[in-house]
TrEMBL record, chains A, B:
Annotated RACo C-terminal domain residues: 349-620
Alphabetical list of Pfam families matching this protein: RACo_C_ter, RACo_linker, Raco_middle
Domain of life according to the entry: Bacteria
Residues of the RACo-like middle region domain: 183-340
Domain RACo linker region: from-to ranges: 90-179
InterPro entries assigned to the protein according to its UniProt record, in alphabetical order: 2Fe-2S_ferredoxin-like_sf, Beta-grasp_dom_sf, Corrinoid_activation_enz, Raco-like_middle, Raco-like_middle_sf, RACo_C, RACo_linker
GO MF entries: iron-sulfur cluster binding
Protein name (Swiss-Prot/TrEMBL): Uncharacterized 2Fe-2 and 4Fe-4S clusters-containing protein, contains DUF4445 domain
Length: 644, 644
């Protein structure tokens, strides 16, 4: 077991505390007597006097083992401690950060041996810590002389060891023993939102999380409109790069302030993002990503200084790591999902779906991993939906329709009550009921199907055919009224036939992508489906399957991985072995390009029906009844529309 | 013999041209018939048609050897060609630059194998050129996609291989075959002047040399006044850093324009400078260099991107190499002198003297090298001299005094004539005779001694004692009139007793430094003295020895190395092995610190006499007679001054 240490055994940092236990230990076959450890020495006494050492604790660098002993090493004293992941408690993050603190006493300059201050620091670090091949950039060299003198030749160094190169890099420096900690940022740069987690690089604890809107939205809502902006405007890409870097600067300052941490001590950042965001963050023109063959400027992982990335809120010497991209449509965010979910280690055939504007799909069976991206479009996010809106207070997020009465119950973001619970009206009055968000429209369409209001082709039936007055005319098609707030000056929230078609297009693309991966792996069914992404956390597995978004599996085998991309970023931030692993894994992933695969179109057409034209979905039918209604043949407005 | 190539054997760059010879070669014992080489193939024919191939030349990548043949490989086709050093023809520079050009055909992107463009470039370079571990900064990654497409997937890369790390760095990129060449700058950043040589990195030829005044002069004439400026002003060091970097930007643009070379193709620069300039160039506060123990922030060599050094006239990806410093007073410029003169390989005990405001001294005997700096002050440069001036037109640079008549002859910068040659007056009328420069004052003082006008203690005799009316009163001391231009409205140029004292202080410091090194090496005499520096080129060896500036050696063993620091910078620019060698050599040099060596003061006092109080200078006395005059005891004004 490796004991943590910053001071290198000087008894001043107390990172190496241990708790000896005494008595008879049958399990170990020994009896530990107090004499088994050396008495407190002067160093421990000094530490206890100055800072206090908890009862029963000893400094691991001072106490000597003199006989049989049982020593408990508390997690915070272990170098390779395990950190429980808060968001999903299935796995732990093993700590092995690239950057660590080392306290060192540097020999004073000597005119007879006129090595520079940096060279003497390097030699002291080599002698005391085994650090070989130290380098420093000019910003660190410029700080060196004053800090050494301020600390009376005792300094704490932050040293970064790359997972790729030999040698260490000096990235931080404080006079004396630095007790302010060392921090890193795990950042997911999304098209809409940039989310960051400020992490203690010693404990792995997340001290603060914060999000900020991606200011690139003013250049285009979705990725392709931003690529277009870059194509149409000579400085368009540079403008968007400046915007996202400025937002990162603001976000960094905010999150550091939230956690009361000095930005000077944030010496690492890991970025994950989709390919277009990846290029725009790095200052690379994304224009090639807007057209076949969707060539990335670079697909490998990248390491650089914060200064090179133009992040002015971080020290210029802070180290940046950007995860590799899997393909032109499957970015570093998908790689982070893979790092979090490890489909290469799956014991079952596992499909991981990261639903967003584009859905990324990973399929792994423990031997191979396949990946593709599906052009779902933004319908799952509530865009291109007549009453669609972002997931914000006032948005309908859950829908249930009574199969007998055909009446809906809804739940709205910002309120835990269903609409038929007492007090719902009062509770929602302030925010109002303003529209329907992504999870809401998915549930609504699935419930229409379950309630017999819509047939398997996706056609909403007429009031006559369905026997429901919630169905109203909308041009030549029918819409279903989810909520009528007009009396109170609010909107009429309906699910239109157009909304259903938009959802059908999106879900067909998603399902077709999954099928392509299954074809490539030569399997007919998967065992488990993992929904990743903040949106994935809100999708009802059952409704997703009624819709036929995902392949048929027992509903309890559909789980949410939460913000898996963010978790993957945190793992890469806390553990350099994970960087090597994800780089290897990304290299080994089989990439399937949906745009050029002829079978994609076939799968797409077959997946248009709800849940599917040909796939029987037996697991789904075990838990729900799908009414066998048919509205298309009986004509009505839909038939007329087709002829018209 | 390694054949040069940029195109990698495609027959389009013609760097590999060879000249086969035919006939009977007794020396080699073979007869070479024309059939010994394959016939011209289509590739050679195409090249000859498009560009023309000189008669008798073949493309080395195309011609096949089919029998006994004698092939002449002209120097320009050799990778490790030797370049004759123009300035001093004693040695050659072997070419082995860090950066070279490689033409490569990159596979087009493929959606089935979605590696990024950079990754495909890296694989092509590995396959065709054996380049492993390629990296690129964001500026190069940003250029990659457009250049690859502009060149239809054929590009020329500039690749830099560090002498320290494994791996290559992409530093330049052109569509198709780049025929514009590749260039580097060797720069000597002096306190007064910044001098740069623009060098062809393929041939080693110097295409242009240019100098610019160091604009830091406005912050202080000499080094210590600049250190003071940094100490007294909060942003003083940063101001001086900005000034020197701005000057380098101007100088780079000027020299590139002089040679008609695009700055985009200048992808390397090597810097040498004294320790204070070194720190100010790098943005390091030089304050510690102004006080004992004169600690350098860093003494090792440095490698970085031009972007990190803030040199905006060079591509951000251009690689910078800064030679190591030897000690707090013995800088990278002295290391460059060592690289040029190689005292570690000297077959004789060789003292190398780089004369400037501070003189740096190197002593080598082929087994050890010792180094020190001597605080000569600026007298040797004409500063602190009553009629002193910079070496510029109008300055007296050479002086001869007739021992019989005590009359002087002078020569002035800008005119090859001596003052007693016909036409001297007309030739010097335009510029005038304005003062005396460094080499002039050294000769003048030495000539005063040789002519018996000044005794060994440095005292100028009275008109009575010397019998010369060129000696005039100057307060209580005597001055010698070199030139009286007052009748024509010009100045009276004299050598005053104060001037002699200033030169004595300077030369005593220089000699004492040399003696310290000799003590350390436990030798009593050296075999050879090399004078380095632009100033060294103008010092008369005989006069330097009369003055006792340098230890006694036969005058023909005193040679000038010209601008050895600049030559050392050029060597490091052209050959990465030289970088390793100078780093090793600097590490092995024994540094002697004059400031703390008690014997320095003893040597200094003993060296005050001209040539010396105790050292007999037998070699000097073999070629000149030093009149045994003595003016101090006979009183005169000097005696009165001492009493007064």
């Amino acid at each position: 077991m490796d004991l943590d240490s910053v001071c290198g055994g000087r008894g001043i940092c107390s990172k190496c505390q241990v708790a000896p236990a005494f008595g008879s230990f049958a399990k170990h076959g020994i009896t530990a007597v107090p004499d088994a450890l050396s008495d407190w020495n002067a160093v421990e006494a000094r530490y206890d006097r100055k800072r206090g050492l908890a009862a029963g604790r000893r400094l691991g660098c001072q106490a000597k083992v003199l006989g049989d002993a049982v020593i408990d090493v508390p997690p915070e004293s272990q170098v390779h401690r395990q950190v429980v992941r808060k968001d999903v408690d299935r796995r732990e993050i093993a700590m092995n950060p690239a950057t660590r603190l080392m306290y060192v006493e540097v020999p004073e300059p000597d005119m007879h041996e006129p090595a520079g201050d940096f060279e003497r620091l390097a030699r002291a670090l080599a002698d005391e810590w085994g650090v070989e091949g130290l380098s420093a950039d000019l910003t660190m060299l410029a700080r060196l002389q004053p800090v050494l003198r301020q600390g009376a030749w005792n300094v704490t160094c932050a040293l970064h060891k790359s997972h790729r190169d030999t040698g260490w890099r000096l990235t931080g420096l404080w006079p004396g023993l630095h007790e302010g900690g060392l921090f890193g940022l795990a950042v997911d740069v999304g098209s809409t939102t940039i989310a960051a987690h400020l992490t203690d690089l010693s404990t792995g604890a997340v001290l603060a999380s914060a999000g900020i809107m991606n200011p690139q939205i003013r250049f285009g809502e979705d990725l392709m409109s931003r690529v277009s902006y870059a194509m149409m405007n000579p400085d368009g890409a540079a403008e968007m790069t400046a915007a996202v870097r400025q937002a990162l600067t603001t976000l960094t300052r905010q999150i550091a302030s939230d956690a009361d941490v000095a930005t000077e001590a944030i010496l690492e950042a890991v970025f994950v993002c989709n390919p277009v965001m990846h290029h725009l963050l790095l200052g690379l023109d994304p224009v090639e990503l807007g057209q076949a063959p969707f060539a990335l400027a670079t697909s490998g992982s990248l390491s650089m200084d914060a200064g090179a990335l133009g992040l002015s809120s971080l020290p210029a010497s802070a180290r940046i790591y950007v995860l590799p991209c899997i393909a032109g449509h499957v970015g570093a965010d998908a790689a982070a999902v893979a790092l979090s979910e490890r489909p290469d280690r799956a014991e079952e055939r596992t499909l991981i779906v990261d639903v967003g504007t584009n859905a990324e799909l990973l399929l792994g069976d423990g031997t191979r991993v396949l990946a593709c991206s599906s052009p779902t479009g933004p319908a799952f996010e509530g865009a291109q939906i007549s009453s669609g809106q972002r997931a914000a207070p006032g948005a309908i997020e859950a829908v249930r329709i009574d199969p007998a009465t055909k009446a809906p119950r809804i739940r709205v973001i910002g309120c835990e009550l269903w609409s038929d619970d007492p007090g719902f009206e009062e509770a929602t009055r302030a925010a109002g009921i303003t529209g329907i968000c992504g999870s809401g429209i998915i549930e609504a369409v699935a419930e229409l199907r379950l309630a017999g209001l819509m047939d398997r082709s996706g056609l909403i039936g007429s009031p006559q055919a369905t026997g429901s007055d919630r169905v109203i005319a909308d041009g030549r098609t029918w819409s279903y009224v989810l909520h009528d707030g007009r009396a109170a000056g609010g909107p009429l929230v309906t699910v239109t036939q157009g909304d259903v078609r938009a959802i059908q297009l999106a879900k067909s693309a998603l399902y077709a992508g999954a099928r392509l991966l299954m074809d490539e792996m030569e399997i007919d069914r998967v065992d488990r489906v993992v929904l990743a992404g903040a949106f994935g956390a809100h999708i009802s597995p059952l409704h997703a399957m009624v819709l036929g978004m995902i392949p048929d599996v027992p509903p309890d085998k559909v789980t949410s991985a939460g913000n898996a991309a963010g978790t993957g970023a945190r793992i890469a931030l806390c553990n350099i072995d994970a960087r090597r692993e994800i780089e290897e894994l990304v290299g080994a992933i089989t990439k399937v390009e949906t745009a050029i695969e002829p079978r994609f179109q076939e799968h797409f057409v077959a997946a248009n029906a709800i849940p599917h034209d040909s796939a029987p979905f037996p697991e789904l039918r075990r838990v729900v009844v799908l009414p066998e209604v048919q509205f298309g043949a009986s004509g009505g407005r839909e038939r007329r529309r087709r002829r018209g």
